[in-house]
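residues and backbone:
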Amino acid sequence: MSDPFESARTLHHAGEFALAIPLYQQIIELDPTHFRAHNNLGACCDELGQLDQAEIAFRNALALMPDEAPIAQNLGRILHKLARNEEAEQEYRRSIKLDPLRADTYYNLGRLLQDQNKASDAADMLHEATRLNPEHVAAQSVLADLRYDQQMLEPALALYRRVIDLTPHDAYSHFHVGKVLETLQRNDEAIESYRRAAGIDKESTAAREALARTFHKAGRHSEAVSSLNDWLTQDPESPLAAHMLASLGASDTPDRASDGYVRDTFDRFAHDFDHTLEKLQYQAPQLVEQAMKGHYGEPAGNLRVLDAGCGTGLCGPLLRPYAQSLAGVDLSPGMLKLAHALEVYDDLVEDELTRHFSAHDSKFDVIVSADTFCYLGKLDAPFFAAAQALKPGGFLAFTLEQHAGASEYHLQANGRYSHAEPYIHAMLEQAGFTHVDVDYQTLRMEGGKPVAGFVFSATAGPNNGAE
């Protein structure tokens, strides 16, 4: 006669979690003190995303065996998933106290502390995990990410290379070795790492984009173009490859970045976007808020405001005091999801800017656009549509990057457009805007250098952009 626990465990180890659960439950009904059945039931529930049931099972197991470090760790992991971070930390630390030699527990506690933006404490825990188990790949990788974020580049590089020693076909680590080397301006070495990453993960948009970008930075223009043409041969519909090819002057310059390029680019960056811009000393949201304050004075909460290209919502908290209603529009669903989580906007819409403006005649008192018009080359249609969307006398504030050349606008190698000041003035006037003011500001840092920009503000005329 087979052992019911062994039968349940066989199903469990085979990944048949839904079949194993009722067997574990039957064992517990017959013997409520069977702590291993409680623990394994929790593990199966965890695998199926039944976190509340998993918590109950692990707590029951721990009540029976309070000195079992693995069970405390399991409970901590469930509480972490449930975002009950203080309780999770207590259980992880209890597990460490019970067994201070379990590398996985230090790793899990490190990840928890990382999620709480306690980078230094997280690094200490992850370092201890790697000391206890020098082959703990996940701990090495996450610690490398932390060191990179802390701009501890040489330690990060050593850690990523250690992961590659352990797992030679890890595209993620090859890619991040490339990122560190690129940051260190060791571009030729970075190219080789990006090339390896792209060779391992042939679907990696990030690796292909980085490879072409770094070829260009290294002055290897023909190889940059060749890599993009190879990309387009394999994926003819790639909006990113097509836009990058144009940005390098290897194809005709489009009037604007395509919807696909904008959507794909910002969906990829969504979760790292705010952190990345913080490192770049990004100023555009504060600059458009200053333009608002210069025009309206102290906020009175009485305006219908549209945040055009709202992204993750960096402008939202700054605009909210001015707004009776605050709407946001963006092409990236990944960005909009994060903006929605702020609970600042009354309405968020996935749409292209010019199309959205055109669909809302005389609806808004204010339109602000921080670092969004830089994905448009020609500005006549968006400015005309913005004038339509504003009430007579409505206010438009936006940023653009400065172009000092003879042309009206220029598609830069970074994929954004810069614009000549006379062209911007001409397009605003043509669209019917009056009282145009411009401020000259640094928008952010890029490659260690300031990005020179304009902060424009203008008033919609009485005809709302009508011809």
User: Anything to note?
Assistant: The mean pLDDT is 94. The first strand starts at residue 303 and ends at 308. The first helix runs from residue 4 to 13. Residues 250 and 325 are 44 Å apart (CA to CA).
